[in-house]
Amino acid sequence: MSSDPIFQLKAALGEAKVLTATDQLQDRRHDYWVVSHIRDRLGAQGQTPACVVRPASVADVQKVVRIATATGTPLIPFGLGSGVVGGIITSPNAILLDMGAMSATRSIDPENLLATFDAGKNGLEAEQEVAARGLTTGHWPQSIEVSSVGGWVATRASGQFSTAYGNIEDLIYAIEAVLPDGSLVTLGKAPRASAGPDLRHILMGSEGTLGVITGVTLSLRRAAEKQAVSAFTAPDMRAGFTFQRDLVQRGWRPPVMRQYDVRESKRLHEAARDCTIIMVHEGPAALVEVERAAAVKLAATMGLAPLPDAIVSHWLGHRNHVAGWDDILNRNIVADTVEISASWDKIAGIYDAATAAVAQIPGCRAASAHSSHVYRSGLNLYFTFAIAKDRPEDLESAYFEAWKQIMTATADGGGSMAHHHGIGRVRRDYMTRELGPEGVALLRALKTALDPIGVMNPGVLIPDA
Ligand SMILES: Cc1cc2nc3c(=O)[nH]c(=O)nc-3n(C[C@H](O)[C@H](O)[C@H](O)COP(=O)(O)OP(=O)(O)OC[C@H]3O[C@@H](n4cnc5c(N)ncnc54)[C@H](O)[C@@H]3O)c2cc1C
């Protein structure tokens, strides 16, 4: 047998599943990371993979993984390419594993509230199929239309309704994956187990570095009987945080709780002069009524004025619209969002420090934030920055400077540097500050044990030794 991986892939899977035409390779060169788009526009990132493989079954994935490992060929899993942290950048010797053809719904089980999907299943299609049975996944990332169920697991994603329903780790029942040696594992078969460490967590957030996720079983919910909304204005971020903390610590759980600083509030309603808090309440009708009333009462007690429900309805209707990068890059502006999290006592300090530091970067046009995922012990912040430069060549360094300021303010302030987009390439060098040198060593030990020659998505997640 030839040692050429492409020859071996074609022999094992058939020619039709191994793509080598230039346009097919170009299409899947990278994910949605803005840096890859900047480099594309400068003609600085022209590398395509050696081939794109589109497996149709778990057995196909096993064959691909075994060939990659046997030939020492880098293997890069690709869900739907909506990742925003540089988790996918191809090189000329790599195999790109496009999971898009593995998109079946394997089962929907209304009795046990479970649904099993192939990993390449489009997120919105998964939601629509369970919605047709009166059910919901409860997972609504803004990218639901352009991301895959397997990608959600690989990046440890969060949805907009997470405050009540949880993040992907709370919604997963079972994960099926092919490990770098080609073996198949299925982890999870009951609502809970006390059978040693929960091995599903090794794959959640693994970003293609520890294996290929081939199937996912989600724990569903019945569709909510009723939905209601509420909105309030707060004089500053601290007052808003205090309100959110008190509401959640009293035991209320609106699925959506978001707080925007003044700058971002103006995007929700132009007349905004203060911070804005919006909430969506969902569930049994009686509970929704009581929760909304409790939120209104608490806000009044704390001196937060109510805002029209229409602000929330407008957000609900437009929440998944995002302009493409070209709009801003054409104006020589680089922008991005950076999500972090921290406990209640630390979050305001991180907000102040990060926005002040980014505002100092020459050309800064915007440094703002909102929160969107609330916990009993703290919440996340989602920073947005926009920086203008005279020359497109200077956008990339401005971008990394803004990230550095936010990462440093978060780490110095005692927060976690990644809430839900993952690590990819942009956060890799900050992993030692996040996990400590011992934590990084543990991650490396795991990687070496599972993937000793390092074929799975090299360059991502784990910092160089
Ligand atoms: C407009 C926009 C809005 C977004 N909103 C949100 C949001 O609300 N919440 C959120 O959490 N994220 C959000 N994201 C980020 C992104 O959509 C998520 O990270 C998503 O989970 C990625 O899924 P994907 O299928 O597109 O993965 P890809 O981009 O294809 O891959 C992401 C990473 O996972 C790996 N991977 C993908 N599939 C597999 C697999 N089957 N097995 C092993 N590894 C795999 C890849 O190698 C890569 O490292 C947003 C992105 C955009 C562009």
Secondary structure elements and pairings:
Layout lengths: L4 H9 L4 E2 L2 H6 L6 H8 L9 E3 L4 H14 L3 E4 L16 E4 L6 E5 L4 E5 L4 H9 L3 E2 L12 H7 L6 H4 L2 H4 E7 L5 E4 L12 H4 L8 E8 L1 E2 L3 E9 L2 H13 L6 E5 L1 H7 L6 E9 L1 H17 L3 E2 L3 H9 L6 H5 L3 E11 H16 L4 E8 L2 E2 L2 E11 L6 H18 L18 H20 L15
Helix pairs in contact: 1-4, 15-16
Bound molecules: flavin-adenine dinucleotide (FAD).
The site of flavin-adenine dinucleotide has 37 residues, from strand 3, helix 6 and strand 10.
Would you write up a description of this structure?
With 465 residues, this protein is of the alpha+beta class. The model has no long low-confidence stretch (mean pLDDT 97). Helices cover 37% and strands 22% of the residues. The strands form four sheets. Strands 12, 13, 14, 15, 16, 17, 18 and 19 form an eight-stranded antiparallel beta sheet that branches. A five-stranded antiparallel beta sheet has the order 5-6-10-8-9. The protein has 17 helices and 19 strands. The chain has helices spanning 5-13, 22-27, 34-41, 58-71, 123-131, 149-155, 162-165, 168-171, 200-203, 237-249, 262-268, 285-301, 310-318, 325-329, 344-359, 395-412, 431-450; strands at residues 18-19, 51-53, 75-78, 95-98, 105-109, 114-118, 135-136, 172-178, 184-187, 212-219, 221-222, 226-234, 256-260, 275-283, 305-306, 333-343, 364-371, 374-375, 378-388. The chain folds into five domains: 5-100, Uridine Diphospho-n-acetylenolpyruvylglucosamine Reductase, domain 2 (2-Layer Sandwich), CATH 3.30.43; 102-222, Uridine Diphospho-n-acetylenolpyruvylglucosamine Reductase, domain 3, CATH 3.30.465; 226-318, 2-Layer Sandwich (Alpha-Beta Plaits), CATH 3.30.70; 325-426, GMP Synthetase, Chain A, domain 3 (2-Layer Sandwich); 429-465. The longest helix has 20 residues, at 431-450. The radius of gyration is 23 Å and the shape is globular. Flavin-adenine dinucleotide (FAD) binds next to β3, α6 and β10.
